[in-house]
Amino acid sequence: MRCETWDVPRARAAVLIVAAAGLLTRMLIAANMPGPADVRIFHGFAKAIVRYGPIRIYEQPLPGLPVYNHPPLAGWMLLGLNELSELGIPFGTLIRSPASIADFFCALIVFEIVRRRAFLGAAVACGVGVAVSPVLIATSGYHGNTDAVAITFALAAAHLLVDRKAPLAAGVAAALSISIKFIPVVVIPALFLVALRAGRPAFVRFFAGFAALVALVWGPVLVTVPENLKENVLEYAGGGYRLWGLVRFADMFGLPESFITYIEGDGHFFFVLACVAAGVWLARLRPAQLPAVVAITMSLLLLLSTASALQYLTWAAAGLFVVGFWEGAAYSCLLGLTAVLGYQGRSAVRWSETVLHLGEAGWVVLAVGLGSGIRKILAMRSDPPGRPPVEGTPLMAPRTCQPTGSATN
Question: Which pLDDT belongs to residue 144?
Fold first, then answer.
């Protein structure tokens, strides 16, 4: 018996072509559809940043706009996008470009991660899955928040650290992830743990890259308006809508109002700590599987999230393709339908009964995918990646085999 194999350059080219088509699709949506309320909100933020600057923006009341809860790098991004809009490019198209471009690179990163841990056919399927994911097309091409950018940098940090052996670049990528959206902070301890276990030189380079970028981006805001930054960004708990996950189920089953209020408030920090702890535990046991650990940790954050927003579905979309093709495909298809139906209105938060029920089913699919991912990570060997596993359960399905001598086209 012999197994049909892909040629790596051709496999990479195939993913690149589909990712480019996915980027074109997203940009066509961004250029021709108005998008949800967040597009207009971001435009308002950009105008406010032009007036007050990306540092002082945190201390401004911003009448008519929600709280500005984005990390410092997002402010500089909005400032640049506003400058481009002055050249005649619609801001509604521009604000959805970073997430759409991030999806393009994320498809390539997922391909590179998976091909080191499984067979090329599975890697191609997973990279293509990210490129055509209905969840990501909807949240990046139509919604256009910064979640996809943050997730891409988080996965890139893990890939650079354990696969590329580039700790300096990994540290920079990790800092970029939390500087554009703070949610990947839950994976930072796991990244530091694996960098430390890689040896002192690797840890020093990782720390140097991370610290330098954090000092450059966060430093001026921390010095100027630390309390406003803490209140708006570091302590932001999300909206009070009961549309997703634990809060949704608690409300459905009539649990005490005091309990729901608690988990939406101070209690949500315990869920964040649980995600951090899970990531550190898995990274300690299987440091070579760090990209999958990052994927699992971000997916767990979504599972336990007490906030509700359709763009949050991005947190698990690419990562579950790192776990496995079928886990990623099941999540992307079901939650993609949820997102598409949810975006039919003009509001990003008012979900119909159909969307709510799809979200409930999607939460269960996410939970099953997480369980599968944790099981696979624990079954993997802990030595450095570089070839498909020969023991335990691979993160992807094995390639199909054909009898020796059979004809292939």
Answer: 87
- CA atoms of 205 and 200, how far apart (whole Å): 9
| Residue 4, phi-psi category: left (phi > 0), alpha (psi -120 to 50), beta (remainder) | beta
Q: Please list, in sequence order, all residues whose beta carbon lies within 8 angstroms of the beta carbon of residue 251, skipping any fewer than 6 positions away.
A: 242, 260
Please write the tens of the pLDDT for every residue from 81-103.
Answer: 999 999 999 999 999 999 999 99
CA distance 192 to 183: 16
When comparing pLDDT for 325 and 395, which is higher? 325
At position 38, the amino acid (one-letter code) is: D
Closest to 6 (Cα-Cα) out of 88, 148, 90, 123: 123
Asked whether the beta carbons of 124 and 9 are under 8 A apart, the reply is no
Tell me, rounded to whole angstroms, the distance of Cα 191 from its chain centroid.
15
Instruction: Please say whether the beta carbons of 258 and 276 come within 8 A.
Output: no
| Residue partners of 350: CB distance under 8 A and separation at least 6 | none
Q: Using the 8-state DSSP alphabet, how is residue 309 labeled? A: -
Who contacts 246 (Cβ-Cβ below 8 Å, separation ≥6)? 263, 271, 304, 305, 306
pLDDT in tens, 257-266: 999 889 888 8
Phi, psi angle pair for 402, to nearest 5°: -130, 150
Contacts of 112 (CB under 8 A, 6+ apart): 123, 159, 163
Q: In this structure, which amino acid lies at residue 265? A: G
The pair of three-digit structure tokens given for residue 402, joined into one six-digit string:
């054909």
Q: How does pLDDT run across 352-405, given as a tens digit for each residue?
A: 899 999 999 999 999 999 999 999 999 986 555 544 443 333 454 434 333 333
DSSP-derived secondary structure for 259-276: HHHHHHTTTHHHHHHHHH
Contact 320, 372 (CB under 8 A): no
Distance CA 48, CA 39 (A): 14
- How far apart, in whole angstroms, are the C-alpha atoms of residue 187 and residue 246? 21
Tally of helices (H runs) and strands (E runs) in the chain? 20, 2
Q: Which residue has the tokens 């990782």?
A: 206
User: Percentage helix, strand, coil, to 5, in the chain?
Assistant: 70, 0, 25
The conformation of residue 1, written as its DSSP 8-state character, comes to -
